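Reading group handout, session on sequence-to-structure problems. Before we discuss, look at one worked example. The prompt was deliberately terse, the way you'd type it at a terminal:

> structure Sulfate ABC transporter ATP-binding protein

The input record follows.
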Amino acid sequence: MNQGNVVIEVKDIVTRFGPRTVHDGVSLQIRENEIFAILGESGAGKSVLMKEMIMLLEPNAGEVTVLGKRLNGISYREAQQLRREWGVLFQFGALYSSMTIAENIEVQLKEYTKISKEMRDKLVRSKIALVGLDEHVGSLYPAELSGGMIKRAALARALAMEPKLLFLDEPTSGLDPVGARNFDALIVELRDMLGITVVMITHDLDSIFSIVDRMAILADQHVVAEGTLKNVLQSQHPFVEDFFKNEYTKEKYMDRLDQNRVKDV
Ligand SMILES: Nc1ncnc2c1ncn2[C@@H]1O[C@H](COP(=O)(O)OP(=O)(O)OP(=O)(O)O)[C@@H](O)[C@H]1O
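And the output record:
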């Protein structure tokens, strides 16, 4: 597995909304082929940071570079090209309710490519299979699917353009424990099979302990810890202490914490 090249670089980002400063010099690097998590308490600016990576928001200062392209001052043409390189799974699936699952998956293929209807149908079928859904799901509407199926359908849509990067906003939230672990396994499988890089916002300790390669902790307008679980656990920042070193976590994940040999845990 190649986990060398930096595919996303965030450098000294400052983000303000009116008088509120959300980021005040946020920097991090995400490498090719890794599963990278953004952690932090509610309101820490995780979603805003992800939106800045996918050009839905612009920071007040600092630089974001994605796949070698600086987003500051990027031309319309380059921005459109870059948008094809990523897929995004928003927190609540965000499928179009008036379209079937197949039509939802087809949206970007229609918008960004000139491929024939027959080929689009083939691609849609292959994406539905890729995320582990049954072929007939393509003709159903979002309202006819369970929460877990909606997540998978939204993932199929995010993968429609065969992106290099996959952004996931709390992918396992709202899923039951079995569904959440199955979804984690799917993310790993897709990363391995497709060679993509995965960036996810998560609060899910099971995901963090089992599938995440590296992570960044956002707090106090900064990245207060970044790296592998082992690196992050060395931090004594109050968020890290509360999130990873509380009694419940220590008991439930004793093995993983022991493997990472953290002092005072
Ligand atoms: N478009 C916007 N306009 C004004 N304020 C915003 C906007 N987007 C986000 N904010 C503010 O920025 C802060 C960070 O929001 P963000 O959604 O990034 O938090 P988060 O870390 O993702 O939280 P959560 O875990 O609750 O989703 C919040 O105070 C939010 O109200």
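Points for discussion. First: The chain has eleven helices and ten strands. Second: Strands lie at 6-17, 20-31, 35-39, 61-66, 69-70, 86-89, 165-169, 197-201, 214-219, 222-227.
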